[in-house]
Predict the 3D structure of the following.
Amino acid sequence: MLLIYCPHCLEHREEEEFSYGGEAHIARPLAPESLTDEEWGDYLFFRKNPRGIHHEMWYHGVGCRRYFNATRNTLTYEILETYVVGTQPQITGADA
Amino acid sequence: MSQINRLPTCGRTDPSQTIKFIFNGKTYQGVAGDTLASALLANGVNVVGRSFKYSRPRGIVGHGMEEPNGIIQLGSGAATVPNLKVTQVELYEGLEASSVNGWPNVNFDLMGIIGLFGRLMPPGFYYKTFMYPQKLWMTYEHFIRKAAGLGKTPVEADPDTYEKINQHCDVLVVGAGPAGLVAALEAGLSGARVIIADEQSEFGGSLLASNELIDGSSASDWVTSINSQLESLSNVQRLRRSTVFGYYDHNFLTILERRTDHLGLKAVSGPRQCMHRVRAKQVVLATGAFERPLVFAHNDIPGVMQASSVSTYINRFGVAPGRKLVLATNNDNAYRTALDWHRAGRDVVAVVDSRSSPSGELVELVRGLGIQIFDGCGVIEAKGSKRVRSALVAPLNSEGTKVVGAVQSLACDLIASSGGWSAVIHLSSHTGAKPVWDEKIVSFRPGESKQQERSAGACKGTFGLSDGLLEGATAGAEAAQRAGFGDGVVQRPLPAVDEVVEQPQQTLFLVPHTKPTSRAPSQFVDFQLDVSAAGIELAVLEGFESVEHVKRYTALGFGTDQGKLGNINGMAILANALGQSISATGTTIFRPSYTPTTFGAIAGRDIKDLFDPERYTAAHRWHVEQGAAFEDVGQWKRPWYFPQGNETMHQAVNRECLAVRNSVGILDASTLGKIDIQGPDAAEFITRMYTNSYLKLAPGKCRYGVMLKEDGMIFDDGVCACLADNHYLMFTTTGGAAGVLAWLELWQQTEWPELHVYFTSVTDHWATATVTGPNARKVVAKVCSDIDLSADNFGFMDWRNGTVAGVSARVFRISFTGELSYEINVSANYGRHVWEKLIEAGAEFDITPYGTESMHVLRAEKGFIIVGQDTDGSMTPADMNMDWVVGKNKAFSFIGKRSLQRSDSVRENRKQLVGLKTLNPTSVLPEGSQIVNDPTQAIPMAMQGHVTSSYYSANMGYSIALAVVKGGLNRMGDTVHCPAADGSVIAAEIVSSVFYDPKGERQNV
Ligand SMILES: [Zn+2]
């Protein structure tokens, strides 16, 4: 059970209040119609699955109802930082 | 013959309070302070169970949670508890227990005969013998379970209550032995909020059975004093009978507190057990160590015990479990047991020490008492059947790997063995820390952890008392400092302990026999599951190398004791067989739970009505009063149908459906999701989310929309109404409401924060009554005078503000039945009032309340889909024959649009929504039926699709169904077949999915 710091509520809260939102920093293509099926498929389906540092979205559904980003070590489950959408992480892994 | 083994010294028991109890049908007497184990030993009960595989008689081996043999069923009836350890059950008046293993009983056991054929049941026996043929497994399983008797689960509901407590603390100390006690005291003195938990009935750990002196007084006096110091600190919470059974991420730990189990049959109130869910800033693990038995031939005969357990029974319980002791050891520490036994006035036959010329302080004390010491020797075999009769002793080589001299027999009835100590690293291992093997202490140590924790004392491999106290105090002070309290310096002077100097132990796990391991009498490693040294060696011969595989193949460590005694010995024997070191062989990762945990405690109060919230609509009581049958839709309780008299569901639904089409019906539609959307960019945002456009939707107008996921598949649908400029009300499906809101928030917050738009869930604010049918206008007109209800001024897909039954209302002309419909929304507080007024007004038209089942039938007659029933996350609007809802010319590429052009979305032969009309008009297709073209084709048949919705339609006079069929829209008129599991086949014709009023004229009047 993770203890997650919500950068909007400015508090640590139990994992039960949050839900996972998948990989962060994936921008929606501005002109989807101009993409090939393969390019669109990359956006749609392909995700990193790193062993270690991962930037991901979390949703404080039973709290402030806001999405934010977290940098989490997928090996140790340590959450190294949380930061608001639209900003960049301070901690990055080898392949970031 | 009562309590033949009770000593005049009573330890911590109170002999003045006798307690009667029943074990395996016989009545015995114990005393207050006994465990069931100490009471049984006091009464000279040798056999307490039978082993799992060979059904060999087994006696008590240990004194705590490591006990593998004394596994019992406590009580009977609803409150019976299976698989408890006799060593952990505190005795109470009237206690009734029986062995879980043993058929028909522990002393005469049919399965014991199988024991004679032990060699026919090698490791992997279950895999090899019982796995094939697979269909016989059920037969085998029944036999194995009956034979092994793994305890009985009560069949009645648990009469006890359980509780859960969420707690936070600065420092959690696990274990209240010497290290844990001083750690808690140091942390507590710093002002930190401390929880200290220990699984035993009283704090003190090993000191409860120790006769060491601390600060010049007895260990038990010292425990009393430190306990009262802890008690005086209001910031320290002390939890006895409380097992910390799991250590999870981010310093979250779970504690099972047994509150009333020890009170037995006395009338008690309050929860039986309580699970503490603790988030600790810092953790000190002081979980101690287990003594490791030596493995020798027939070491499972009752009367072979752990040396430390023998001492514990003498010192803590005043029980000497036998008469004549042979002590087998490879270390100095175990000599304490010889001293204790001698002090108890019993006969120490000999100490058998695998080391040559031991001369430590304790050894010399024993020698000084004139007790014979066989040095450089091992107990290679125990003799006896239901009790040890003698020990076979032989000289060993200096490595302890071979018998090098003549064997002699020592008559005795008790063999206490000690192979050294294993640190209890389980909780540390739960954190993901990999245990490290330490050759010097012959034990694993806790590995490096990512959590905020540290180990102290024996569980860290520090086995001496004064070193353990120092480590505990330091750990407590440090943990407090890391949590923000104190300066990390130990405050109390450490107590003085007269430490004896011990000589090193010998690394010895398996005592050799005169015969090779494969031919020697069984040398048991895991008592509960009958895993022997020979079995582990055989597994290696068969090619197993990984400790995880060997464990599963031999079942080592898979009993209810989870191999607490056997695992390290098993791994050492495996390493030896593989010709490699223990560290190269690895360790097994321990996972929660540390000990078996009651499901009731995990569930707590979250059972029955409190398992999940129930949501009621404002008119719920009315529905109940009318005798409605209810259906669960998510957490909502929705009326399913309203039976009258003795009507069946089928009859009620037919009546309700006919009433709607012929006069008027009324549905409680309050559960539909409602999201209030406001902001200058609301229309733009909504248009990006739906497939069609809302940019030109004027106030007073409604539009039906479909929402896709970005992969182009239908995700939700519903009507969206323009309430005012920049103000919309979005309806969602009942089950989809929460998901749709989160979906809107996701896109607004993460992708388009520049759009000014705000969402509020208003589902519960409104009560909705849908009045539908040809007479709907006449009914509404009777209770609403300020809305012009004429078709010209209030048309289909319009909405109006007004007053209904005296209550301010929003009335929507939207329809899920295809009939003239008014969805009347009022503040939920007036929901029942308005509902009743509508019923009253409709009486002259025979207004008929209907439930979700009729709602489903009526919409299916119209071919209206239900997202999640007719779609399954792989259906595009085109698949649903709903291309008309996709705005092809919208400026913005709405969510999912690009995916509608993916090669897979536009391929031929996708499954498409069609209607099915069964050739036999009364046979109703089962929903989910698979559709094939040729029912005589050999299996596997070519699947064409499946039935998504299917009902008998009283309005049509025949059975109707919706289905998705490959290329179905081009197959109108074809006959397809639905084979059922029983071999029958229903044939149906592919028809339009709109059965009733195909032109949609009835809703537009
Ligand atoms: Zn928040």
